[in-house]
Design brief:
Elements lengths: L2 H21 L17 E2 L6 H20 L4 E8 L6 H14 L6 H11 L5 E8 L2 E9 L7 E9 L1
Antiparallel strand pairs: 1-2, 2-5, 3-4, 4-5
């Protein structure tokens, strides 16, 4: 083999490995693949203003991406959390489930989110990545009733 052929082969191997790493080696996740927190109750459009908003967000995202021809999508859904659920419990649940499914966190992004979450009793957020997908969870606590909490799940695919 000539040096040129070896170099060409090496470049092809590196590109193939890069593509596999970018894909995460697994099929893209769907929103249905992201588990619900135990005993959480899904918010339904027509019954919840939050669910109505998330449904509209999904439609707006699809329309905008179609107009721009960018591809990808963002899907969102929400759940009422059981009484007594805490941010630490929620984050730990998703951290365990998502990491077991090949998702990872970005230390810089996670550090910024952790700082923003500290001292904020009403709003917490975390994010995981796998290939060209991101999943974010947002826990929102009612400012008038600390027992009313929802988790919003957002899955973005590029």
């Amino acid at each position: 083999m000539t040096i040129r052929t070896k170099l060409f082969t090496a470049v092809l191997v590196v590109l193939a490995l890069g593509l596999l790493a970018a894909c995460g080696g697994t099929a893209p996740a769907t929103l249905g693949d992201i588990p619900a927190y135990p005993d959480a109750v899904e918010l339904k459009p027509g019954e919840s203003t939050i669910a109505d908003t998330l449904k509209q967000n999904n439609q707006n995202d699809a329309a905008l991406r179609a107009q721009l021809g960018t591809g990808g999508k963002t899907e969102q859904k929400g759940y009422n959390l059981p009484k007594g659920a805490t941010w630490d419990q929620l984050k730990s649940f998703y951290d365990d489930k998502l990491k077991a499914g090949g998702w990872s966190t970005n230390s810089l992004v996670s550090g910024i989110m952790d700082q923003a979450n500290q001292g904020n009793d009403l709003f917490h957020v975390a994010n995981w990545q796998r290939g060209t997908q991101n999943v974010s969870i947002v826990m929102v606590t009612s400012p008038t009733n600390a027992d009313e909490k929802q988790v919003l799940i957002s899955l973005s695919s590029q």
